[in-house]
Amino acid sequence: MATTKAPDAGRRSDRSRRAIHDAALALVTEQGYRRTTIEGIAARAGVGKQTIYRWWPSKAAVLMDAFLDLAGRTAEDAGGAPDPDGAASSGGSAPGFPDTGDLAADLKTVLRATVDELNNPVLEAVTRALTAEGIVDAKLGAEFVQQLLDPQLALYVTRLRAAQEAGHVRAEVDPRIALELLIGPLMHRWLLRTLPLTHAYADEVVDYAVGGLTPRA
After folding, report:
1. CB burial class (10 A; 0-12, 13-18, 19+) of residue 104?
2. Which region holds residue 129: left if phi is over 0, alpha if psi is between -120 and 50, else beta?
């Protein structure tokens, strides 16, 4: 008599989670965060809403988890963080942030990649939804910063400190404030849609910021 394998609960669970992630991302893209509901996500994913509540406490938690998963998959598909010309790190940078010895060039590489991510239609709607909701929902905003932004900002801090050690940035410069000079303008233009967000703009932001960070004669 042929034996029948027991269903793989782990595999079924992974499929359900991915279906819920995909459903949440699709609905937020199609109709916005506020009109997206747990019931709608469950229906789109083909699961019961109790399945969702078993894993996540709220709609915001579902979307956050889905976004983090999507961001991870997008980075993997892109081959990881940018590394111009395949240049090896000089040893002063954190993994994922280039350190070719040319601070301006490295920052332009990263900011150009940021522009591409913000303009990516797959990521844009969800990023806007989480950013906007995080303004009115302090708990969600803190989670968004802790899980997504802080790890990325830490890479800037590490690279800027390496530049300080190499004498390319003034010793008294606070890296945390310096990185805001770089990221802040991009987010302002992107969030408010004041003007197009382009590589050329990212390059100019770097030139303006680095000009104020480097040692003075």
Report:
1. middle
2. alpha
Encode pLDDT of 10-37 as tens digits: 566 889 999 999 999 999 988 888 899 9
For the entire predicted model, the pTM comes to: 0.78
Report long-range pairs for 197-201 (Cβ below 8 Å, ≥24 apart). Answer: 197/115, 197/118, 197/119, 198/115, 199/112, 199/115, 201/115
